[in-house]
Amino acid sequence: MTKYPSHISIETFHGCNARCTFCHVNQWERKEGQMTDEVFDSILKQLDGWGQKYIKQTALMLNGEPLFDKNLEERLSKCKSAKLPNVGFTTNAQLFNEKRIAKVIEADPDYIVFSFDTLDKDKFEQNRLRLKHERVLNNILSFIETRNKMKSNIRIVIRHIDFQADKKEFSNYLEYFGKLLRRDIDEIGYTKVHNSAVKKSIDENLTDHCGTSPCGAVFNRLTIQHDGHVVLCPHDFNAEYNFGSILESDILEIFNSKKFNEIRLIHEQNKRHTMSKCKGCDEPELNLKGEMYAKYTPSGELFYANVFTGFDHNSEREKVDTKK
Ligand code: SF4
User: Fold this and answer.
1) Contact present, 166 and 190 (Cβ < 8 Å)
2) Residue 45: how many other CB atoms lie within 10 Å
3) Which residues line ligand 1 (CB under 6 A)?
């Protein structure tokens, strides 16, 4: 039976302006650069038909800062014209300016995620090397204001990364952004740092081995790097598990290939620790505990906490009362 991914990540640009201490950016070995139109248009063409039906999230980002992609707005518009679901991207916001903010809003994506870990300037700049706290915060505030002025319905997600995993700052953070965001559509994310870069898990109960639970990424995610190769998951930044190029094989054939299915079987048999990339990755275990990625409405209601099976924003959000 044909399997379909529910999440697709398309790396329209590989490379980043930041050097975050908790990210694997310093381990990237692939050549930096922009996805060509040939690759991007081929992806869209291949998704047409089933993508509109099965995909729940279309993310134009992977290992890199999407605002480096000079065609980002045009590509967002193309995804929207193709009627792909839940189109958007995650950004560190440093490269925004007024003109770019307006252009992105005009492209009308469904969502934008701002990775803005903390309101504490020192903590932010110690962890987000090369980024300036004031500039990033001003860009986010300006995006919110312009979105509102332009009467756009882009969902804004502001994501807090809790470096100490002690939730000490989160209530202030929630209060600060809760007042600024639209209660009917916006979100505030809470994330613990996963260990893909630093190797040591923030959860002291997890050993170097981390666990054997099957990972949702291998069942649900389609991860396409900027040169068109499909890899295991967003943490496979150096393409250790390369399933082939979408320019040479059909995307669905790659997703349903023998090689990909063998990896799913390894996960189903709780043998994930036998794979070099998955051994020691704490995402599945943190996610199972609901500690990987939680979402809150601006009024503070928790409405979703499963990074691998969620992202169906509309149905998840309908379950909570956002009018308080
Ligand atoms: S266990 Fe970690 S490395 Fe393996 S597929 Fe899942 S997220 Fe990726």
Assistant:
1) no
2) 12
3) 215, 217-218, 232-233, 235, 272, 277-278, 281, 283-284
CA nearest 33: which of 244, 225, 224? 225
> Phi/psi of residue 98, each to 5°?
-55, -45
pTM, whole model, 2 decimals?
0.93
Residues 104, 127, 21, 115, CA torsion sign? negative
For a ligand 1 pocket test, name from 219, 277, 306 the mutation site with the most ligand atoms within 8 angstroms of its C-beta. Answer: 277
Cβ atoms of 215 and 308 closer than 8 Å: yes
Instruction: Determine which residue's CA is closest to atom 1 belonging to ligand 1.
Output: 278
Percent of the chain, pLDDT > 90?
A: 74
pLDDT at 311 over 60: no
Quick check: 146 pLDDT over 90?
Answer: yes
CB 164 within 8 A of CB 156: no
φ/ψ region of 157 (left if φ > 0, alpha if ψ in -120 to 50, else beta) reads: beta
Q: Give 239-243 contacts, CB < 8 A, sequence gap 24+.
A: 239/30, 240/276, 240/277, 241/275, 241/277
CA distances from 4 to 8, 139, 181, 221, 265 (A): 10, 36, 34, 9, 16
CA 314 – ligand 1 centroid, Å: 26
Cα separation, 254 vs 263, whole angstroms? 13
The pLDDT confidence band at residue 154, using thresholds 50, 70 and 90, is very high
| 282 phi/psi in degrees, rounded to 5 | -95, 0
Amino acid at 103: K
CA-wise closest residue to 34 among 62, 8, 12, 10: 12
152: Cβ–Cβ under 8 A, 6 or more apart, which residues? 105, 108
- Per DSSP, 31 falls in state P
